[in-house]
Amino acid sequence: MTKKKILIIDDNPDILLGLQALLADAGYNVEVSEQIQHTFLATHDASDLPDVLLLDMLLSGQDGRKITKQLKSQDSTKHIPIILFSAYPSAENDARLAGANDFIAKPFDIDALLAKIEHFTS
Amino acid sequence: MMLEHPNKNKRGIDTAKNFAEALQESEERFRLMADTAPVMIWMSDITGSCTYFNKGWLDFTQRTIEQEYGNGWLEDVHPDERERCFTTYMSHLHKREPFRMEYRLRRFDGKYRWVLDHGVPRFTPCGIFAGYIGSGIDITELKETEEKLRQSITERVELEQRKDEFISKASHELKTPVTSIKTFAQVLANRSKKRGDEEALRFIIRMEAQLNSLIRLIGDLLDLTRLQTGKLFLHKEIFDLDQLVVETIENLQGTTQTHQLLLEQCIPIQVYGDRERIMQVLFNLLTNAIKYSPDAQKVLLRVEKEGDQAIVSVQDFGIGIAQDQQTKIFERFYQAPNESQRTYPGLGIGLHISQEIIKHHSGKIWVNSNNGKGSTFRVMLPLQKEVCDDKEKNSDY
């Protein structure tokens, strides 16, 4: 069985490294990126779409909400489940309004995060 | 024809003389009063033309009464306020209404001073309008003090806002490293478990517990800012309070090896509120109970119903709280007055936040305690039905 692909975009390399290890240990195929330029978002490579996208709400110079809106408005990408995350717990409402499928506050409740990913990949 | 009494004319002359004297005395009395009063007094006729200025006015402007007569006084008024001043005066005069206005009046030294002027219409005993009488006082210092006060309030508010923004940003910045540390700790815990490395796992669990304390601390700082700015949002729902208490005990029991958290009494009760926030309050009360009873081995909990209220009580057998401190402990940044009690760690915000959370559930929190004999904290929450009925009023704020 092929592993489900999780793409994580966050501007903090340590968070990426930690999440990558954690999710890889949990059996996922994990790709990480500090910038959207290196992902399907910029390359528009349809064969490169993730099964779940974990996206930081405030990337340096980029707004996760805008990216979410854009992805949800395109036929080729609107099916991708997007989990937005932020250190501001009150940002959940904004995340929902932007069209995100789910939200999780930093620092992550790891079990809750794994449960959310499992929900979208099962 | 009747003969007039010979003294009748004389009496008439005497009466007229007495009346004139009385009038003159009254006039004199008014002038004496007006000239010694520490205010500026003026009078005008029915057209609004000024006919009298007291010594206080003339001393202030050091102009002659002739210069001030009629509308001459307007020359003393600051050019920027002259028109407004005259219009206010004349419009009230037409309506025969009292007025009150502030304007700048030139003092003898050329400096403009703020004057508060009250004018009232005068009427003869027959009710005929006779003009105005008014009095003015120098309120420059009052205005300056007011302005300074306003400025200092504005500065204070700005400073408070900047402080709140700083705490909010600082808390946010702290969360980023904490997130990665927590994730790494979880990875290490999972891998140590797989390898069967019990010692490493034990250390990592302790590390995670400390990390959770740090996260709670950051959360408390953020909550404090939210309370200050009125942005503590609650996500209310109906939930089982008894189950929440059990869950909180289970979560916390693993972090203490010294105390048994014993649920002495528990009945099923549903309340309407923010489950996470109520758990935060219980967590705070339980960690305090453990912290302030270092020589005790147990903390007792009860979940009861009293009339329309659900009551959760947390009883410890620790150092207790003096009578005069029992309300103060809920104040922001509270620190115990006693030196030995200050050796306990803490920022003095946990109980304040707890109280605010409970208040926003239309509940109550209080303590019964005796110095050296332990404390019992009680949280009272309205039962589910009552709060639901009142849902709109107590919604998120």
- The percentage of residues in β strands of chain B lies in 15-25%
Total E-strand runs of chain A: 7
Order of helices and strands of chain B: HEEHHHEEEHHEHEEHEEHEEH
User: In terms of per-residue confidence, which ranges of chain B show pLDDT below 50 for 5 or more consecutive residues?
Assistant: 386-397
Order of strands, main sheet of chain A, comes to 2-1-3-6-7
The rough form of chain A would be described as globular
> What's the main sheet of chain B like?
5 strands, antiparallel
Strand runs of chain B, count: 12
The residue ranges of chain A in which pLDDT falls below 50 over 5 or more consecutive positions are none
Biggest sheet of chain A: strands, sense, closure?
A: 5 strands, parallel
Helix content range of chain B: 40-55%
Give the assembly state of these chains: heterodimer
The average pLDDT of chain B is 88
Our count of helices of chain B gives 10
What is the strand content of chain A? 15-25%
Strand order of the largest sheet of chain B: 2-1-5-4-3
C-alpha Rg of chain A (nearest Å): 13 Å
Please report the two chains with the greatest interface, counting residues with C-beta closer than 8 angstroms to the partner's C-beta. Answer: A-B, 16 and 17 residues
Q: Give the helices and strands of chain A as they follow along the chain.
A: EHEHEEEHEHEH
Polypeptide structure, described:
The complex is a heterodimer of chains A (122) and B (397). Chain A has helices spanning 13-25, 40-43, 64-73, 92-98, 110-121; strands at residues 5-9, 29-33, 52-56, 58-59, 62-63, 82-86, 102-105. Chain A is an alpha/beta fold and 122 residues long. The longest helix of chain A has 13 residues, at 13-25. Chain A is globular, with a radius of gyration of 13 Å. Chain B has 397 residues and is of the alpha+beta class. Chain B has helices spanning 8-36, 55-61, 65-68, 79-95, 140-195, 198-229, 241-253, 275-291, 350-359, 384-389; strands at residues 40-44, 50-53, 99-106, 112-123, 129-138, 237-240, 260-266, 270-273, 298-306, 309-315, 364-370, 374-382. In chain B, strands 2-1-5-4-3 form a 5-stranded antiparallel beta sheet, sandwiched between helices. In chain B, strands 7-9-10-12-11 form a 5-stranded mixed beta sheet. In chain B, strands 6-8 form a two-stranded antiparallel sheet. In chain B, strand 1 and strand 2 (50-53) form a beta hairpin. Chain B is elongated, with a radius of gyration of 38 Å. The relative contact order of chain B is 0.07. At the A-B interface, helix 1 of A face helix 5 of B.
